Amino acid sequence: MPSLFYEEYFPVWIALFVSIFLSIIIFTLSYILAIQNPDTEKLSSYECGFDPYEDARNTFDIRFYLVAILFIIFDLEAVFFFPWAISLSHITSWGFWTMIDFIIELALGFFYAWKIGALEWE
Amino acid sequence: MNFSFLFANDIKIFFPEIFLSLAILIVLIYGVLLATSLTYNYPLISKNIYKLVLFILFLTSLLTMYNPIDYALIFQKTFVHDDLTRVAKLFVLGSSFACLLLFQSYIENSQINNYEYFLLILFSIFGLNLLVSSYDLISAYLAIELQALSFYVLASFQRQSVFSTEAGLKYFILGAFSSGLLLYAFSLIYGVTGTTNLINIKNFCLDPYFEGATIIQIALIFLIAGFLFKIAAFPFHMWTPDVYEGSPTSTTIFFAIVPKIAIMSFFVRLCSFSFSSFDGIWGEILLFSALGSIIYSAFVAIKQNSLKRLLAYSGIGHVGFILLPLSTNTLDGLQAMFFYLLVYMITSLPVWGLLLVCMKGKKNSQNSVSILGGLPTSSPILAILASLAFFSLAGIPPLVGFYSKIFIFFSAIKSSLYLVAFVVLAISVVSTYYYISIVKTIYFEKNKNWIFYEPVTKEKSIVLAVSLILLFFFFFNPNLLLLLSQQMALSVF
Amino acid sequence: MLFLLLSIVLIISAILVISAQNPVHSVFFLVLVFLTSAFSLFLLEIEFVSLLFVLVYVGAIAVLFLFVVMMLDIKVTKQEKDFMIYLPMGSFLGLIFFLEIFLTLQENFVPFLPLSGRELYINWLNCIDSLTNIKVLGQLLYTYYFPFFLIAGIVLLVAMVGAIVLTLNFTQKAKHQFVFRQILREKKNSIYLIK
Question: Which residue of A82, B62, C52, C146 sits 20 to 30 Å from the alpha carbon of B48, by its own alpha carbon?
């Protein structure tokens, strides 16, 4: 399907390919050109001079998870802003107030999270 | 374009939902302000919020009942307002009102102190009301998600209990899977027809030169699978006993009674209205599912020891009875289906209320069938009530459950499904056996252990009494329910 | 061509998501799935949704997945014994399912390919994208279909309330610093007699 879409995004294409190409070059050249003679001490993971005695992964507080979920929700809220901002001149005051209503809904949620102490950290 | 002019009437028609959503937001803020206030020393406000929620439900049902307009397609034909939505919404609101009255004391005893419990119930009622009135695939999907999200949280609300979190997780994973199936079906339908509106889909399907008929057939399979999961019918029922048993009993009651009518009313609209010309396909699938759930539940429920699981399986059987007349795709069938749904909601209230009486506080272990044995000595009236409710579920004549079953047989026979009617008749004898064996446990089994029952509160007793009176009243005068179900069935087409 | 390549990468990485032994690796393959699907959406000229994929799925949901994987405390998933029992039945059902979808899609959607001969001329007016994807979305979502938008807001609110209810520990009280109380504290009101 011939369309102007590809022509408009052509500079992006070029930038993308250049960046992929460049990163491949840097990665492979550093791999090839660098002198490598590995031994056991070099390959083992380094932690302040002694052997790591614990796995890096352990269970942690569920609050991190809560923060991540709240982040997703407000991220989605921000996503809804983009089309609104672009077409604001066409959607009259009705569209404007729709968005305000949406913001109020989530702002009440934010207020709830704040008051109940979901954002606090002891 | 002047949108406030365009939507002026729509907003007036949609007023109950707008009121409900605003009320939810206000309850959210009111609750959090009061619950975290230092001056009142962090009060427990669940009883306060409970009364507020009852009041909100009452006002919403008043607004729904006295909506001046009879029929309208609103918001760019994405929502509908007609007799079906009005009656279904009233039943959703009324049954959740009754459920709240039933399980308030349970919530207090089992120390669910967070006021968010009632808030989430309000959210799910809002979602169910939207689902009833949606006339577009997107709005239906949004409503289903709203309802399902709050249900997942309600199921796993007792965080300390392993059973409750397990129930919530199971429900969440399987529910998300079924939502995915639904979404895939919707996208296939949209891909073929280019529209998500029910009327436009109907017009596409009626067109003899329509090219996407095969894709619509596949989409229908996914659609039916998703919806059968949501109402817990036969091949997709496996989550029901676990979720019902694990989640807090108040949540179980809410799951069992309220959402069925809302989901079914949208499902009926989709099947009998939009895809009416494809009734050969969905009719057969639904018939299979209906027969499967009736037979399966009858034979599995006999073996059950736990009262909650038994009631969950009997619920699967009733879903089979609900789907059976729908599969005929006739007006009589739809009327019988809606009649059965309404009667099922009224009958489930005393049955599940009985469960609440037997559950003493937090002790989840005390729910085997044998604990009903002490009922005649401790509270003879409650024993009579329980046995009458089970008789009505079984369909024994002086109660309205008899009519609801017989209408379904009539509708099956009218569509010349003689073999099906015969098989279902035979199987319902089996299901009657286990209902009556519960009554036998109540009256004729001596229980050696001490049994303690929850004292019946005033609200609970009112709900139980009213629902029992209705069971008798509608047997001698079923015209009201018949008219309501006929109105609902007529407004589908 | 590029689309084909991307979809092959997508399918392979989607298979690797479920077959990778290390859960962290499968999350990274999931990120690759999101990226390639975003790219294919881009090639289908749905640029807003593709950027949204990168923003929401790669940026936020993959992070959440990593959190969950970290919390699960599973190092390497063992190959289950049941796997071989379920494989024949599952692959059989999956194959039937795939063929069914494939055949119907083949039947219905192929005639719209450009090589069918019906596009002997190009109407250049159709090729000008006068409205971009994001503009179309914006002009419909906030006006004609605003109930969907507001219901989506309520769904997000439910998600927020649900997440807080299920995870927050209400008993613990965080220690606060009340600045005004510290400033108001003087010699006069900080010395008092305790009887």
Answer: B62
Round to the nearest angstrom and report the end-to-end CA distance of chain B: 33
Name beta bridge partners: B73. B80
User: Rounded CA gap, B488 and C19, in Å?
Assistant: 50
d(CA B135, CA B273) in angstroms, rounded, equals 11
Please report residues of C whose CB lies closer than 8 A to that of A79: 52, 55-56
Q: With contacts defined as CB-CB under 8 Å, which chain C residues touch B149? A: 155, 158-159, 162
**Start-to-end CA span in chain A (Å):** 58
pTM for the predicted model, two decimal places: 0.91
Sorted by where each begins, the domain ranges of chain B are: 3-492
Using CA atoms, how far apart are residues A108 and B21, in angstroms rounded to an integer?
A: 13
**Mean pLDDT along residues C147-159:** 94
Flag if A94 and B28 touch (Cβ within 8 Å).
Answer: no
Residues 137-176 of C with CB under 8 A from A: 137-139, 141-143, 146, 149-150, 152-154, 156-157, 159-161, 163-164, 167-168, 170, 172-175
Q: Please state the rounded mean pLDDT for residues C156-172.
A: 84
Cβ pair B222, B132 in contact under 8 A: no
Q: Do C154 and B126 lie within an 8 Å CB cutoff?
A: yes
Domains: count for chain C: 2
DSSP H or E stretch at residue B79: strand B79-81
Short-list B15, B39, B222, B43, CA closest to B129: B15
**Which of B388, B367, B350, B349 lies closest to B452, judged by CA?**
B367
The ranges of chain B with pLDDT < 50 are: 361-362, 364
**C81 inside domain:** no
Count Cβ atoms within 10 A of the Cβ of residue B208 and give its class: 0-12 exposed, 13-18 middle, 19 or more buried: exposed
For the record, the structure tokens of B108 come out as 């207090």
Determine, yes or no, domain membership for C162.
yes
Find the length of chain C: 195
Domain assignment of residue C119, yes or no: no
Distance (Å) of CA C13 to CA B95, B132, C36, C58:
48, 40, 9, 15
Strand partners, C50: none
Do the domain assignments include residue C183? no
Question: Average pLDDT, stretch C150-154?
Answer: 95
* pLDDT at position C36 over 90: yes
- Which residues form the domain of C150? 128-170
- 3-class state of residue B52 by DSSP: helix
Domain ranges of chain A: 61-122
Banded model confidence at residue C157, pLDDT cuts 50, 70, 90: very high
User: Which single residue is written with the structure tokens 């044998």?
Assistant: B370
What is the pLDDT averaged over residues C65-93? 75
* Predicted pLDDT of residue B293: 93
Q: Angle CA(C164)–CA(B163)–CA(B158) in degrees, nearest 5?
A: 35
Please list the alpha-helical segments (H only) found in B395-417. 401-414
C105 burial level (CB within 10 Å; 0-12, 13-18, 19+):
middle
Distance separating alpha carbons of residues B485 and B479, to the nearest angstrom: 10
How far apart (Å, rounded) are the C-alpha atoms in residues B217 and B236?
19
